[in-house]
Amino acid sequence: MQMPLTNRPIQAAPPANPLGAMTNLLQTDLQAVNALIMQRMQSEVTLIPELAGHLIAAGGKRIRPLLTLASAALFGYEGTRQHRLAACVEFIHTATLLHDDVVDASDQRRGRSSANALFGNEAAVLVGDFLFSRAFQLMTEDGSLEVLRILSGASAVIAEGEVLQLAAVNDIGTDEAHYKRVIAAKTAELFAAACEVGAVVAERGAEECAALRNYGMNLGMAFQIADDVLDYAARRERLGKSLGDDFKEGKMTLPVIRAIARADAAERKFWSRCIGDMEQSDADFAQACAILARHDALEESLAEARRYAEQGIAALAAVGGSPLRGHLEDLIVFAVDRDY
User: Fold this and answer.
1) pTM, entire model
2) Is the C-alpha dihedral spanning 106, 112, 113, 116 positive or negative?
């Protein structure tokens, strides 16, 4: 009998990555999306495709557009509307990455120099704006007011999440509710929208569209919380991200928030210096990990991610028994229990 998600220890072996199987199953659709992405990022202003291509051509897992394709295919949809909308979702995602790297002063993305490091902050912001505009063109070309409502709404929510996150920078008083509000907006909202529009183009009813949105929202929450745990507990380096990056940038993530909530005076002074004042020594990351372990902050945060995963799996009960449903269930488990 499979161990329930919430009872798995953090040391458990990660599940197999389902993205390969999903990609193979949806290969023809994904090729059409990739071709559309490359076509629509072109411009007579040569810096635009050069900068956009630096990030888009670097790959990434295309998880969000894959979710749109899978959600449409889940219901047997055989048209092509999902290709345009999957490309739209990827443009929104890429635009937010360009803006994020400027805000965070990041110099690495997906194991390569970030676009802002190579081309400058001004160019990165403006090309991000271009990609947002391309996304809105793709939305309107689809012709559905419901699709436009979902994806334009997601774009607004993501921007709100960015501003919310700014309010928590280096603030050790940030609470769990604020953290979850930020990641729901910044990360989970686009997962939810990507899933929901797939069901909309397949002309499903309100219950099934809501179920796919619910799944995507829970996937996004689980994914981000697990990612924040991995910053302190990954068994191997992740593409473009080193162990301890969040700590070095002073980010208030769920493990840190939970550890601070239980901190004694000495520990609170430590977090105030390292996160609040950004005064860190080479030994501080190891001490942070020790404090997190002392308070079971990583285990408890991962258990929280698994609770979201279980809610996402439960949401899929409303969408029938397509083989793709099993892949979506595997994906949300993998999102939590991956080791990179």
Assistant:
1) 0.93
2) negative
